[in-house]
Amino acid sequence: MKDDAGTADQSEPFGPLVHAAEATLADVLGHPIRFANSDSHNLADAGAWDRQRFLSDWAGSQFLSGLGSAAQHSPQFYGGNRDLGFIILEDLGHHRRLVDPLLHEAAASAEKALFRYSACLGKLLADTIGKLPTLTIGELPASASASWAGWKRS
Fold it and tell me: What is the 3-state secondary structure (H, E, C) of 2-61?
């Protein structure tokens, strides 16, 4: 929660953690950072953009994690809670970004990076084609773990 000045309320259990995270990001980015109060997100309204974006992230992450493919197409989905508005995903650590060779390296390096990216997209398509979820996004359970089997296998 935020106090009237917009800073993390130190009486909340995670207040000190939120304040420290805001200060760290402010130091790195060079300007003040204030995390939004989670109460400001509208996950109850089925037509709200916050809800659509959150549930799309949930559905996509859970779907890709449940493919059972040898290729890992996304961070592993571990679970989530719709009412509290969170999903838990694997931390992939540091990975090279596609934009770096495109903007900062020689043409040959950029070409190799684009070929690798294209191959990944092709594998994603091959692994997902014909495997449509049986649920619509609005039907996701209130909470789920990675073991939840709500997806249809083709």
Answer: ECCCCCECCCCCCHHHHHHHHHHHHHHHCCCCCCCCHHHCCCCCCCCHHHHHHHHHHHHH
